[in-house]
Amino acid sequence: MKLYIKYMVSIRCKMAVKAALDALGLQYGVVDLGEVEVKGNMTSEQRELLRDTLLHSGLELMDDRKAILIERIKNTIVEMVHYTDEMPKTKNSVYIAERLDHNYTYLANLFSETTGTTIEQFVIAHKIERVKELLLYDELNLTEISYLLNYSSVAHLSAQFKKYTGLTPTFFKQIKRKKRIVLENI
Question: Can you give the residue ranges of every domain in the chain?
Answer without folding.
Answer: 1-63, 121-184
